[in-house]
Amino acid sequence: MQSWRDNLRRVTPYVPGEQPDKKKVIKLNANENPYPPAPAVMKAREKIRHLRRYPDPTASSLVRAIAGYHGLKESQVFVGVGSDDVLALSFLTFFNSDKAICFPDITYSFYDVWADLFRIPYEQKALDERFHIRVEDYYPENGGVIFPNPNAPTGILMPLSRIRDLLDHNRDVVVIIDEAYIDFGGTSALPLIDEYDNLLIVRTFSKSRSMAGVRIGYALGSEDLIRGLNDVKGSFNSYTMNQPSLVLGEASLKEESYFRDTLRKIIETREWLKEELLRLGFCFPDSKANFVFASHSRVPARDIFEAARKKDIYVRYFDRPRIDQYLRITVGTREEMELFVDFLEDYLFNINTGKF
Ligand code: PMP
Questions:
Q1: Residue 101 CA to ligand 1 centre (angstroms)
Q2: Does the pTM exceed 0.90?
Q3: What is the DSSP code string of 15-56?
Q4: What is the mean pLDDT of the chain?
Q5: Which of 37, 179, 245, 272 has the lowest CB atom count within 10 Å?
Q6: Angle at 289 between CA 287 and CA 295, to 5 degrees
């Protein structure tokens, strides 16, 4: 006899960073922004009304605001519930070839989960020994390409010249660049969407705009790509964007100076953190994101991760081949990072004294 269990979709889900249920923690494990959203966002909460009604299914006010911000047409913008939603829909919309899609072996660990969920064949291309993407690996025929720039969890930025090279070798498939962390000092590939109608740029309000809890992501690309996304979304769930997030997202885009100021503080703290980590015996690729991916010359990453956790300091550890000696450390406020560095100093100095 057949059981319903035989027909169950079996998947291994993505594991997000731990969200500890405690107040006084130093939380450096989910690449969240340590600063609050712009004051205009907090103020706009008063404007949230009509919750009785369905929201605008086309999210037109937010689409217009994003298009205006980037100097694009509204028909070149698609919005979703965080960039995870936008990326998942993009997989569903664009990756329908029987050839394998390509992405790096060390990258955002949701990509293989979506590929498995949607039964998309994929090939993970090994980063080189310095964790750089080898563009030549993406030359052969494939079913599409996706990678984050800067890459996560390495923080390494790919320069535009190499992105152009990758695009020139992939004119017949959709290339998705996940720019979740681009605002922290990277050069965006956005200007290339006019030249390459198969290039989709995906962004988020979660990191640089301090709005992870609101869930807003968006995609920018040619009108044909955006139409494709809207059709698939409209075949899945009409009302993805709730009314409060439409209002709050629009408000965030109006406060450029606060946004720039927050980014500047995070970048300054990141550069300070890099110096401190070097002093303490860590090495890391040069990050242009709001995190540093660091490995200690002597002490196993897992031990540091566990000792920090006991002190209510949360960083991210991935027990995976090639990266199990690394910690991904989100850049918090300067005060948080000073406390983290104090912990490291104490831990690394006293590791053999039985204190930990
Ligand atoms: N892309 C990358 C590379 C990420 O690290 C994240 C954060 N987990 C996301 C996309 C998704 O972020 P969100 O859904 O909050 O926009």
A1: 19
A2: yes
A3: -PPP--S-SS-EEESS---SSPPPHHHHHHGGG---TTSPPP
A4: 96
A5: 272
A6: 45
DSSP code of 346?
Answer: H
Domain range annotation of the chain: 18-35+256-352, 39-252
pLDDT interval class at 128 (50, 70, 90): very high
CATH class, 39-252 region? alpha beta
Backbone Cα Rg of the chain? 21
Q: Comparing 18-35+256-352 with 39-252, is the CATH topology the same? A: no
For the segment 37-96, what is each residue's pLDDT rounded down to a tens digit?
999 999 999 989 889 999 999 999 999 999 999 999 999 999 999 999 999 999 999 999
The predicted-structure confidence for 315-340, as pLDDT tens digits, reads as follows 999 999 999 999 999 999 999 999 99
Going from the Cα of 84 to the center of ligand 1, the distance in angstroms, rounded, reads 6
Is residue 217 lining ligand 1, measured as CB closer than 6 Å? yes
Decide: 185 in ligand 1 pocket, CB within 6 A.
Answer: no
Fold of 18-35+256-352: Aspartate Aminotransferase, domain 1 (3.90.1150)
Kindly state if the Cβ of 206 falls inside 6 Å of ligand 1: yes
Give me the pLDDT at residue 50, please: 85
Calpha distance 213→79 (Å, rounded): 16
Residue 17 has pLDDT above 90, yes or no: no
